[in-house]
Design brief:
With 552 residues, the protein is of the alpha+beta class. Strands 1, 2, 14, 15, 18 and 19 form a 6-stranded antiparallel β-sheet that branches. Strands 11-12-13-16-17-22 form a 6-stranded mixed β-sheet, with helices on both faces.
């Protein structure tokens, strides 16, 4: 176990979950091979340009070839062309010049899916569910491969005119929105979820993540917080220095946080907590799932390695690779994997095979023979081999086929738009519940909507029938198969009743979001969130909480 006290200065460059360094080629033979293959590539491209039957777009062709080359390495080494630099800067800083709305394409229409709080979009009266027809007089249907996001971005204090079709309105509505700097917050929600339990939802690690977490923590302490739930579910990671600073909030100054090890040993670094912590005593529960990745895994793993808190949820994603950004010619960039990172127990949380995952993105079961045991500061045994395994595992709840279909077809969203139009106000998100009569109205509204689906049982029966025919057993069991199909064939009406609780929960959260935006969605989820419920139950039994941290 490596709990060193070495003080290591943070690198001055921005580390994306994180990393520094580059490698050099060591021999003349290797330089020759590079030069030879580049010459082949240039000659090939020249021949394509001269003789291919259609015109070749040089930018598109080269971008395609670069992407294909990098894909052979790992999913995190990426090339950014000049016209993608703004998107890259948004990804790392969380800032852009625009209006603050998320617009997605559904059935050929550009629909406002979310309006962010405090942004020009909200102030202008833009609503979730609005269909954007025109931007500055440009009809989106007439623009090939139109990207509304690019049209909405622009210089600060310049106005953009939107023409939208709003539910319940006969004529289109014109809105003028003045662009401004839009800051996508790393902590979209924080608050007290019980008398003494505070909750911080950490969704990203851009340049202000540490400041946002510290500010939220101090405000909650002022409101009487005695215990903290830190939620890093669905957090894809981000800047390494932000992960270090957030860990530093809860562990002593000079404590080792993470070590990076790459091809060139002189670039290896150990990063430590540089500042006095905000709190070393408050009980902490960290919520994780299979989409908690990279910097989120550093925070989770460090909290676990120092026995500073209890982890609840599912195994994390398993991205223990370090990237840095290298400047290329003509204002292009390369984000390149340069090292792996190791948390204080010595674990590397990189999945052994990150290219083969479960459908939900999780690592899956790692054979015991491929795991190595490590120990936390208190002597608890933990393992590497792909992600961070929580102390209390809560099985992920897969959505039922009908709930998945209603969501993917946009019917949950569409009904929330209708509900918002029909009901000017609702109760606060935490208190909002649909009545049985309102749920019945929803099912009635679905009567003429298309949302067919196939259950897993029906799929399995189809597989069984195909196998029976292939192996010539079908004649012997076809009557039984027919009977099973009849019994297991789903009925939409029956499923709407059987899975009423799940569907109504999804509907309530979506509706709350249309009134209270991101905060509404989060608060409406509290009552039915299994990981959050497990955290609150554990905080009610502090003896069990302590025993988990001391267990060997």
């Amino acid at each position: 176990m490596r709990f060193s006290k070495r003080l290591t200065l943070l690198a001055s460059s921005a580390l994306v979950a994180g990393g520094i360094g580059f490698f050099s080629f060591k021999t003349d033979d290797r330089f020759f091979e590079i030069a030879r293959n580049l010459d082949i590539y240039a000659t090939l491209f020249k021949e394509l340009n001269l003789y291919y039957v259609d015109e070749v777009n040089p930018n598109r062709m080269v971008k395609t070839s670069i992407d294909a080359m990098l894909k052979a390495l790992d999913p995190y080494t990426n090339f950014f062309a000049e016209d993608e630099i703004e998107d890259y800067m948004t990804m790392t800083t969380g800032r852009y010049n625009g209006i603050g709305a998320l617009i997605g394409q559904r059935q050929g229409k550009h629909i406002v899916l979310m309006v962010y709080e405090g942004t020009p979009a909200e102030k202008s009266g833009l609503r979730i569910g609005d269909e954007v027809i025109k931007i500055d007089g440009i009809t989106l249907k007439n623009v090939k491969e139109s990207d509304p996001g690019k049209l909405l971005k622009g210089q600060n204090n310049t106005a953009v005119k939107l023409t939208v079709q709003r539910y319940g309105e006969k004529n289109p509505v014109d809105l003028s929105v003045v662009r401004d700097v839009v800051k996508m917050t790393n902590v979209p929600y924080y608050g007290m979820i019980s008398e003494d339990v505070g909750y911080i939802d950490l969704k990203d690690f851009t340049a202000t993540a540490s400041r946002e977490v510290r500010s939220a923590f101090q405000e909650l302490k002022g409101k009487g917080m005695k215990k903290l739930v830190l939620d890093v579910r669905e957090n894809p990671g981000g800047l390494l220095n932000m992960a270090i600073d957030i860990c530093n909030t809860f562990i002593p100054k000079d404590s080792e946080v993470v070590t990076t090890k790459g091809k060139v040993t002189e670039w290896n670094k150990t990063y430590t907590a540089l500042n006095p912590p905000l709190d070393l005593e408050i009980p902490i529960i960290v919520l994780t799932n299979s989409h908690s990745a990279s910097a989120a895994e550093i925070v989770s793993g460090v909290i676990q390695d120092y026995d500073r808190g209890v982890l609840i949820g599912q195994r994390t994603y398993g991205k223990g690779l370090v990237q840095t950004t290298r400047e290329l010619s003509f204002n292009t960039k390369l984000k390149i994997t340069t090292a792996k990172y190791y948390i204080p127990s010595g674990r590397c949380i990189q999945a052994i095979d990150y290219s083969h995952r479960n459908p939900d993105g999780s690592v899956g079961k790692i054979p015991d023979s491929l795991k190595t045991a490590f120990k936390t500061k208190a002597g608890r045994v933990v393992y590497d081999g792909g992600g961070v395994l929580p102390d209390v595992v809560i099985d992920a709840q897969a959505p039922t086929p009908i709930a998945l279909s209603l969501t993917n077809k946009g019917l949950i969203f569409d009904y929330a738009v209708k509900y918002h139009h029909d009901h000017p106000t609702i109760k606060p998100a935490r208190e909002f519940k649909l009545t049985d009569a309102e749920y019945a109205e929803f099912t009635k509204w679905l009567a003429d909507k298309e949302y067919d689906y196939t259950t897993q049982v029906e799929k399995d029966l189809g597989t069984l029938e195909a196998s029976a025919k292939k192996e010539k057993y079908f004649d012997q069991i076809q009557d039984q198969l027919k009977s099973l199909k009849t019994k297991m064939s789903h009925s939409k009406d029956a499923d709407l009743n059987t899975f009423k609780t799940e569907i109504r929960t999804l509907l309530e959260q979506e509706i709350a979001g249309h009134y209270y935006l991101q905060k509404g969605i989060k608060e409406a989820s509290f009552a039915t969130d299994p990981e959050l419920k497990a955290a609150l139950d554990l905080f009610k039994d502090m003896g069990r909480y302590q025993s988990i941290l001391k267990s060997k």
